[in-house]
């Protein structure tokens, strides 16, 4: 099988000092039921910000302002497939979410509550890169 690199764009979306997390549908073939940040794969020909805004709109119905990129990480999902994830800080004026079929729940959470839901890998990335220390949002 040919080696593949996937570029994924994810957003820490902030509104009223809370962070948005969304839960993948239980029917998701890859990682059902996990909580994650909104975002998805970059399509060929898109620039990074266009791709991120498109994915956020598709998954949540939200329009966002992209503040900055926060960090990037990479890992292999299979011996032939590597994922590069770029995490951005975004803001929105709305809390009204319209989930796509890919997700079945959402929450607006504070910094401490976030760690009850996200994967261990994501929690470690956030801690090791001091990402949440950079955000002026509520603790819990």
UniProtKB/TrEMBL annotation:
CDD domains: NUDIX_MutT_Nudt1 (cd04699). Keywords: Hydrolase. It holds the Pfam family NUDIX. The keyword Lyase does not apply. Residues 1-139 form the Nudix hydrolase domain. GO terms for molecular function: hydrolase activity. Gene3D superfamilies: Nucleoside Triphosphate Pyrophosphohydrolase. InterPro entries: Nudix_hydrolase, NUDIX_hydrolase-like_dom_sf, NUDIX_hydrolase_CS, NUDIX_hydrolase_dom. Belongs to the Nudix hydrolase family. PANTHER family: ADP-RIBOSE PYROPHOSPHATASE (PTHR43736), DIHYDRONEOPTERIN TRIPHOSPHATE DIPHOSPHATASE (PTHR43736:SF1). This is 8-oxo-dGTP diphosphatase. It comes from Mobilisporobacter senegalensis.
């Amino acid at each position: 099988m040919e080696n593949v690199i996937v570029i994924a764009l994810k957003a820490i979306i902030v509104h009223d000092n809370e962070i948005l997390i969304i839960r993948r549908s239980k029917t998701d073939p890859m990682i059902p039921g996990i909580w994650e940040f909104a975002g998805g794969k970059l399509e060929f020909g898109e620039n990074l910000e266009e791709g991120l805004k498109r994915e956020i709109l598709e998954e949540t119905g939200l329009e966002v302002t992209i503040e900055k990129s926060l960090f990037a990480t990479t890992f292999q999902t299979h011996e032939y497939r590597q994922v590069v994830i770029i995490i951005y800080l975004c803001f929105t004026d709305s809390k009204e979410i319209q989930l796509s079929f890919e997700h079945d729940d959402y929450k607006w959470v504070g910094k401490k509550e976030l760690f009850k839901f996200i994967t261990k890998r994501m929690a470690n990335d956030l801690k090791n890169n001091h990402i949440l220390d950079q955000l002026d949002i509520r603790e819990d």
